[in-house]
Amino acid sequence: MWPAFEWQDERLILLDQRYLPFEEKYFNCEDHEDTAKAIELMVVRGAPAIGVVAAYGVVLGLKKYARFEPFYLAFDIILDRLSKTRPTARNLFWALERMRKIFESVRNEDNETIINRLLAEARQIEAEDVATNKKIGEYGARLIPDNATILTHCNAGELATAGYGTALGVIRRAWEEGKKIKVVAGETRPFLQGARLTCWELRRAGIPITLITDNMAGWLMQKGEINLVITGADRIARNGDTANKIGTYSLAVLARENKIPFYVAAPFSTIDLKIESGLEIPIEERKGDEVRKIGDCWITLPDIPVKNPAFDVTPASLISAIITEKGILYPPYDQAIMSSDNEFNEVP
Ligand code: MRU
């Protein structure tokens, strides 16, 4: 079993990531409203995990509310609520679009058949995500030299997906292949996904991990202590511009300055073929208190104005390669993305 969530006895159980690494508490979702709240509050987070959990949320919502509304109306209300939780991760909308397609194909069937078909689709999205991440790991590990020290940001691991992870899946696979790698995790202020989640995950996997504050990365690169950077992605535009956790762009600039490869690992479900460049990616702005506090502890005056964009966009020109389940994509990314359905871009 992978740790982030599990569909169990008609309920969705989430490992509450707000309490990691100190406590392993669980959050039960009984309907789509619980699921939407869990996504908003970041009980569960990470683009692929959000997508899968939202798909299960559709099923939970229909089970609970179908009796009170015309079925198609309940479906629209549920989808609308879930799609308004977090705006940046493409996988959320991708998963909900898949659920809508299934609903449309069975909408004239009885309610039980519709729910069963939607549950089967949610399970399928979950299973595909694990398989996809293993494939990403397989391709990506080819880019990891033995004895490499790898810098990662945020958490793009088993906690952020249905299992195995994307950026951490690449690291996991390189480790499984026997490469003696070391990982450096940036703490990832303000939500501390690096310090709390990546450290928890890699410690469990037995992979050597060192934590740094976000502002130490440049110095370590300059001293030659980092061999490559690898991160996940929340949304990738057709030209390869990539939205990921705030701070990713700074790392890509530092990597270029220090001549270090900067890789993005993500499934095709993160690529938004409808948008041409990163300029069109909506960036979530979260509550100011996440910046004014660390956990429950205030670190400034409670009324100090702050900014809290949850993501930034790294221009494609700073990305050495994008590792997907269909192969490793190299620039120009628009061509690589469009042609990768037919052919894999293998490591040169
Ligand atoms: O705000 P979060 O924790 O949901 O942000 C997560 C990230 O930025 C991840 O790097 C991204 O979703 C990829 S997870 C495989």
Description:
This protein is of the alpha/beta class and 348 residues long. The protein has 2 domains: 5-134, Four Helix Bundle (Hemerythrin (Met), subunit A), CATH 1.20.120; 142-338, Rossmann fold (3-Layer(aba) Sandwich), CATH 3.40.50.10470. The protein has 11 helices and 16 strands. The strands form 4 sheets. The chain has a 7-stranded mixed sheet with strand order 6-5-4-7-10-15-16. Strands 11-8-9-14 form a 4-stranded mixed sheet, covered by helices on one side. A 3-stranded antiparallel sheet has the order 1-2-3. α2 packs antiparallel against α3 (71-83) and α5 crosses α6 (167-176). Residues 342-348 have low confidence and may be disordered. Bound molecules: 5-S-methyl-1-O-phosphono-5-thio-D-ribulose (MRU).
Ligand kinds: 5-S-methyl-1-O-phosphono-5-thio-D-ribulose
Which strand order does the major sheet show?
A: 6-5-4-7-10-15-16
User: What name does the CATH topology of the largest domain carry?
Assistant: Rossmann fold
Identify low-pLDDT runs.
342-348
Order of helices and strands: EEEHHHHHEHEHEHEEEHEEHEEEEEH
The overall pLDDT average reads 95
Count of individual helical segments: 11
Count of the separate structural domains: 2
CATH architecture annotation of the largest domain: 3-Layer(aba) Sandwich
Provide the gyration radius in Å. Answer: 20 Å
Q: Which structural class fits the helix and strand makeup?
A: alpha/beta
Total number of β-strand segments?
16
| CATH homologous superfamily label of the largest domain | Translation initiation factor eif-2b, domain 2
Distance between the termini: 35 Å
Proportion in helices: 25-40%
Give the overall shape.
globular
